[in-house]
């Protein structure tokens, strides 16, 4: 079994890759920042609700787009909701696909909507799989008696300095924080 520090390093590397790949954006870091000792499962709970809502919305969109005489107003409302919830957890690629999807819906372009639906399902499956993996890594760290690194930059400074990917994420994260 991997040591606590190996698991922490694996977690940091994996999380940094999610940012590098554009799967997640800084909103996910902000969401993690809301988690504290009084609600240690906050992020998992919020993301689980995102998964439930997204699956419901994707099923609704599939049904709506496969009906004779598509209700594009309903398509737009569902895509808008999916875009908002993906944005709130930092699921950047899902959010981006929703923007194109919304435009096709506004144009009443059924072919564009069907292609966007397949693409958003694909991106949703990726973010779901990757976040589930991230949460499993968290559980392994906790089971080993460790602390889950929340601040990649501080963790990297306390270890070997981090990879170029991690340093890029740290630079990007700090560069976008508003000055108080």
Task: Write a brief structural summary.
With 180 residues, the chain is mainly alpha-helical. 75% of the residues lie in helices and 0% in strands.
Helix and strand pattern: HHHHHHHH
Helix fraction, binned, reads: over 70%
Which segments are poorly predicted (pLDDT under 50) over 5 or more consecutive residues?
A: 154-161, 163-180
DSSP, total strands: 0
Give your account of this protein's structure.
The protein is mainly alpha-helical and 180 residues long. The protein has 8 helices and no strands. 75% of the residues lie in helices and 0% in strands. 32% of the residues are buried. The chain is elongated.
Please outline the helices and strands.
Blueprint: H1 4-20, H2 26-33, H3 42-65, H4 72-89, H5 92-106, H6 110-143, H7 152-158, H8 164-175
Helix pairs in contact: 1-6, 1-8, 3-4, 3-6, 4-5, 5-6
Task: Considering the chains and any ligands shown, give keywords for the structure.
180 residues; disordered C terminus; elongated; mainly alpha
């Amino acid at each position: 079994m991997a040591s606590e520090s190996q698991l922490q390093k694996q977690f940091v590397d994996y999380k940094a890759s999610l940012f590098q790949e554009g799967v997640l954006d800084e909103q996910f870091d902000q969401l993690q920042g809301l988690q504290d000792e009084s609600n240690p499962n906050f992020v998992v709970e919020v993301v689980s609700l995102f998964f439930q809502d997204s699956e419901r919305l994707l099923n609704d969109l599939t049904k709506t787009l496969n009906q004779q005489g598509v209700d594009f107003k309903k398509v737009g409302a569902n895509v808008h909701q999916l875009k908002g919830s993906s944005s709130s957890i930092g699921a950047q690629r899902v959010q981006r696909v929703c923007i194109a999807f919304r435009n096709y819906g506004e144009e009443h372009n059924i072919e564009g909507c069907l292609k966007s639906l397949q693409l958003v399902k694909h991106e949703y499956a990726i973010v779901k799989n990757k976040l589930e993996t991230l949460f499993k890594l968290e559980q392994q760290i906790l089971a080993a008696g460790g602390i889950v690194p929340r601040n990649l930059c501080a963790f990297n400074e306390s270890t070997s300095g981090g990879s170029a990917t991690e340093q890029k994420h740290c630079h990007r994260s700090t560069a976008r924080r508003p000055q108080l």
